[in-house]
Amino acid sequence: MVLDLERHREMLRRCSIAAALESVGERWSFLILRGAFNGLQHFEEFQSTLGIARNILSNRLARLVENGILQREPDPTDRRRVAYRLTDKGLDLLPVLLSLRQWGEKWISAAPSNPVLVDRATRRPIAPMAVRDADGRMLSRAELEWLDRSELDG
Amino acid sequence: MVLDLERHREMLRRCSIAAALESVGERWSFLILRGAFNGLQHFEEFQSTLGIARNILSNRLARLVENGILQREPDPTDRRRVAYRLTDKGLDLLPVLLSLRQWGEKWISAAPSNPVLVDRATRRPIAPMAVRDADGRMLSRAELEWLDRSELDG
DNA sequence: CATTCTCAGTTGCAATATGAAACCTAGTAA
DNA sequence: TTACTAGGTTTCATATTGCAACTGAGAATG
Question: Which residues, listed in sequence order, are joined to residue A74 by a DSSP beta bridge?
Fold first, then answer.
């Protein structure tokens, strides 16, 4: 029993999805990040655009900072203000955010999202997030298989 | 004031990330889906491998079914048993799951996850989920820009 | 320089969600 | 016919969230 519980805890520690959710899985965290990706930086901006309760926002920002996803930067020109900006670790969540957005767009809100992420050089929208092989070819579901790591070739 | 609240509600309805999170953003939902992707189908399997409370599991499965992400299929050979399996809508969450897993693997639990998703034909692991242009070329952060939909070419 | 306003919170309390454990019901196995 | 199993539900305790009012440092205004 205790062992089983321990095994479970261990499993959750090993599972990177569970680990990721510890950082960004709480209610509002993702929407705060969406805001940050769209340029929001200040407490009042997040609060008024998301309509989140102030104490919860305060808590979520603190946790995201603790987890190294946002950086808290006091503004030197106005000492009341604090800017919250994405760290590299936070910026690296972009694929998660885009996948989720595209899924929601496809299956729930048929309305296309705004703004759109484009290739700066060509100004063309990015491709849908998809599973691809090592050469960048898109793989359909039928082409995929789960393999135990031990069965991977050298 | 009421208008502002309404505008906010409207925004959340329009935001596909918020919409997606309504379906899969509750605590445990993602881990249940991870289990489903790894082959779990039965109540007792989810319960014992995740260690989730039975009433919560019951609630989450019902909600995922409501939202068309899982299908509830009574087993004809044993009328006690019920199989929960991913629908197409649910299977389409794979990119989200993989992005999250890769992020967790990179930034939190350095340990590589198991099992691994491979190209069935070559048995080689899939490429990391990344932002790519329409031709499949990977785009770095510096190459990306947010553009208002109205500014898109034709 | 006194007053007012803004920003980023905190506090207290009510409403919800979650968790643990026992219980239930239909169906299967011995 | 008795025991056991799968998939829940119920009850009650605890934790999380939400709302509204309040605070305190600092900036803007007159």
Answer: A82
How many residue contacts between A and B have a Cβ separation below 8 Å? Answer: 262
Q: Structure pTM?
A: 0.93
| DSSP, res A136 | S
The three-class DSSP label of residue A112 is: coil
- Residue B10's pLDDT is what? 55
Tokens 């808590």 found at:
A59
What CA–CA distances, in Å, run from B89 to A53, A76, A108, B71? 32, 48, 10, 10
Residue A26 contacts residue A63 (beta carbons within 8 Å)? yes
pLDDT, tens digit (0-9, with 9 covering 90-100), for A21-40: 999 999 999 999 999 999 99
* Per-residue pLDDT tens over the stretch A47-88: 999 999 999 999 999 999 999 999 999 999 999 999 999 999
3-state SS, residue A21: helix
Touching A: B residues 74-103, CB under 8 Å: 89, 91-103
- Cβ A28 vs Cβ A50: under 8 Å: yes
The Cα A131–Cα A139 span in angstroms is: 6
Which residue, among B81, B86, B95, B101, has the nearest Cα to B40 in the 3D structure?
Answer: B86
Nucleotide nearest to B75 (CA to C1'): D6
β strands within B27-154, DSSP E:
70-74, 82-86, 116-119, 144-147
Burial bucket for residue A43 (CB in 10 Å: 0-12, 13-18, 19+): middle
Model pLDDT for residues A124-139, shown as the tens digit of each residue: 999 999 999 999 999 9
Q: How confident is the model over B24-39, as pLDDT tens digits?
A: 999 999 999 999 999 9
Burial of A13 (0-12, 13-18, 19+ CB in 10 A): middle
Selecting from A22, A23, A31 the residue whose C-beta is nearest the C-beta of B18 gives A31
